[in-house]
Write a structure and sequence with these properties.
Layout: E1 6-14, H1 18-29, E2 34-38, H2 44-47, E3 51-52, H3 54-61, H4 65-76, H5 78-85, E4 94-97, H6 101-110, E5 116-118, E6 121-124, E7 128-129, H7 132-141, E8 148-149, E9 152-158, E10 161-166, E11 169-178, H8 191-198, E12 201-211, E13 218-221, E14 224-228, E15 232-236, E16 240-241, H9 250-264, E17 274-282, E18 289-292, E19 298-302, H10 308-324, H11 332-335
Parallel strand pairs: 1-2, 1-11, 2-8, 4-13, 11-19
Antiparallel strand pairs: 3-7, 4-6, 5-6, 9-10, 10-11, 12-15, 12-16, 12-17, 13-14, 14-15, 18-19
Helix pairs in contact: 1-10, 3-6
């Protein structure tokens, strides 16, 4: 990563999680000059399992048909997005096993999905996934310029431009996109925007990585899931609202491995798993803030709860449209930062 002392750009995206990089990728595709600022290290997007799961996420959360349809439309953007940006989209479906299968099948059917039943298993073809860490690397590498490593310190607005002071220098930009996850507000934000950021609730998620298990793609069930890659399996994940601590919780590790044993019959010792923690952001309604903030030249791409990978391309398009002043997509209103929360 480069560390310039001072820089002038057209658009600055603050945050290199999935929403920040998807937005930067979409803006770059539209020939905007974009730079990304990020402190580096592990973030919630890199810890995540990379699931693009409109079907099972809708069924597990018992969402409304309208919300399920929005998630499905967001997922429909992924094949083109993956092709344009060189991402590997794994379209191998997912399954629910064991307890709760009847309820999951009924919810899926009621929401317009097409589950297939096989004993205590409910299979869905609509859910896909990416390797989260690999996808973040591809998106970052495809930018015209590499991300700048630095932590945002303050924002000031003068003569129609923003100036971002950070730990490695300063950046002057016509447009700023906040994609800072569940981080607290940056000093200098307008009061109305700071209030939006402060309303975002942190949600702590714990997930583990272990040697590859003999399981297909994505297996979900009561209390846990397993997402299998070539050399590893991810075991997750907790959802603890209000927590920001990053140390793995031994009790949660045991609960996840016990639940995994019930679902798959596979015994994995909690001490043999590499546990990681990420902090996600969530709005009261569960959908992200994507679009104009109400302050000149300041846009938001924040707080997707646990559907950051699913919603990434949609958020990128909504924010890019808003920056350019294009007619908004139909789903932009549901993500509008100025909507009632």
């Amino acid at each position: 990563m480069s560390d310039p002392e001072s820089l002038s750009v057209e658009i600055l995206v603050i945050g290199a999680g999935v929403l920040g990089l998807c937005t930067a990728a979409e803006l770059t595709r539209r020939d905007h000059q974009v730079r990304v600022l990020d402190p580096g290290g592990v973030n919630a997007s890199s810890v995540a399992a990379g699931m693009i799961a409109p079907a099972l996420e809708s069924a597990i959360d018992a969402v409304t048909p309208e919300r399920a349809a929005l998630l499905r439309r967001a997922a429909d953007l992924w094949p083109e997005f993956a092709e344009v940006h060189g991402l590997e989209l794994l379209e191998d479906g997912a399954e629910w096993r064991g307890e709760g299968a009847d309820a999951i099948e009924a919810r899926l059917t009621a929401l317009g999905f097409a589950p297939r039943r096989d004993g205590d298993r409910v299979l869905v073809a609509e859910d896909h996934r990416v390797d989260a860490e690999a996808a973040l690397g591809v998106l970052a590498a495809a930018l015209a310029e590499p991300p700048i490593r630095g932590e945002a310190r303050s924002l000031t607005f003068e003569a129609g431009r923003w100036r971002m002071a950070h730990t490695a220098g300063a950046i002057d930009a016509r447009v700023v996109v906040l994609a800072t996850g569940a981080a607290t507000g940056i000093p200098g934000l307008p009061a109305s925007v700071a209030a939006l950021v402060e309303a975002i609730a942190p949600i702590r998620g714990q997930i583990g990585r272990v040697r590859a298990m003999d399981e297909p793609g994505v297996v979900r069930g009561r209390g846990a899931y397993a997402v299998s890659g070539r050399d590893w399996t991810l075991i997750g994940a907790t959802m603890d609202a209000g927590r920001r601590d990053l140390e793995p919780d031994p009790d949660q590790a045991l609960a996840l491995t016990d639940a995994l044993r019930t679902i798959t019959g596979t015994t994995v010792e909690a001490d043999d798993i590499d546990w990681r923690v990420g902090i996600r952001g969530a709005t009261p309604g569960g959908l992200p803030l994507a679009g104009a903030s109400g302050a000149p030249g300041l846009f938001l791409a924040l707080a997707p709860r646990r559907n950051g990978w699913l919603l990434g391309p949609l958020v990128g398009r909504v924010v890019a449209d808003a920056i350019k002043g294009d007619a908004p997509m139909a789903d932009a209103a549901a993500l509008d930062p100025l909507r009632p929360l």
